[in-house]
UniProtKB/TrEMBL annotation:
It comes from Phyllobacterium pellucidum. Signal peptide: none annotated. This is Molybdopterin-dependent oxidoreductase. The lineage of its organism: Bacteria, Pseudomonadati, Pseudomonadota, Alphaproteobacteria, Hyphomicrobiales. Residues 90-234 form the Oxidoreductase molybdopterin-binding domain. InterPro entries: OxRdtase_Mopterin-bd_dom, OxRdtase_Mopterin-bd_sf, TAT_signal.
């Protein structure tokens, strides 16, 4: 999307820059109407993809032999807050996952609570929008089981994941990492909250103590350092209003692969 717009500007810029059309076009690009159309196009893509997929097929799973020797950590590799440092010191014994918002029973789950729940292990390929991929083995609790425990309130439509890290330093805190998915992805069998990777405790660089795996979506949807999950009917009021840290900075909310 942004590449196309840049290209358009370049083409217009090279042919008719002197006519003043460039300014007109820039204004058009920024107008809400155009943004609305782009957003509608995006949701059409999502609707079409979901219609075609129908019965929730699984992302491809691989074997142990396919595991990448190196799985590159990306984005934050260690949250900088004092709170996180303290939690890390005791190996997350005092950490609790908060589940609240539009639920019947708000939850606070320790790592031990999560590990006592049924788990799923899956070997999948992680695709980052920057162009690299890696195959890793993830073990964790299916998000659907946690949602069942909490009980959704009528009208809940999205799960929002609040993370411990601030990827961009800002005065208002809007640089905190967060993500959101709809309930279709939330209930998908391969959507898990992982506490282990490649058969070992999840490392800090990969999101300890808990990170989301949402296997049919691009890497930036896989929130690391998850502290709280909020069920909501809209993410419009959260930070930039686009449903995630990178979405607020121009990436698509639906990042299906
Ligand atoms: N909290 C948090 N989650 C995050 C990020 C981040 O910077 N902070 N980066 C995202 C991006 S762009 C990718 S590709 C993956 C990288 O996961 P990895 O570090 O385990 O490779 O985490 C995603 N989740
Ligand atoms: Mo990424």
């Amino acid at each position: 999307m942004s590449i196309d717009l840049t290209r358009r500007r370049f083409l217009i810029g090279s042919s008719v820059a002197a006519t003043g059309l460039l300014t007109g076009c820039d204004a058009l690009v920024q107008s809400t109407t155009v943004n609305d159309i782009l957003q509608r196009a995006e949701s059409l893509t999502m609707g079409a993809q979901r219609l075609l997929m129908g019965h929730q097929p699984l992302a491809r799973e691989f074997s142990e032999a396919d595991l990448s020797p190196v799985f590159k950590p990306n984005g934050t590799s260690e949250p900088g807050s004092e709170e996180y440092a303290q939690l890390r010191e005791t190996n997350f014994a005092d950490w609790k996952l908060v589940v609240n918002g539009m639920v019947q029973r708000p939850l606070e789950l320790s790592l031990a609570d999560l590990k006592a729940m049924p788990s799923r292990t899956q070997i999948t390929r992680h695709d980052c929008v920057e162009g690299w991929s890696a195959i890793g083995k993830w073990t964790g609790v299916p998000l659907g089981l946690i949602l069942e425990k909490a009980g959704l309130a009528p009208g809940a439509r999205y799960a929002v994941f609040y993370c411990a890290d601030e990827l961009e330093q800002t005065l208002d805190g809007s640089g905190k990492y967060y993500e959101s998915i709809d309930l279709v992805d939330a209930w998908h069998p391969q959507t898990i909250l992982a506490y282990a990777m490649n058969g070992k405790e999840l490392e800090v660089a990969h999101g300890a103590p808990l990170r989301l795996r949402v296997e049919r979506q691009l890497g930036y949807k896989h929130a690391k350092y998850v502290m709280r999950i909020e069920l909501t009917d809209s993410f419009r009021g959260i930070w930039g209003g686009k449903g995630g840290f990178w979405e607020d900075r121009g990436y698509e909310w639906y990042a299906g692969i």
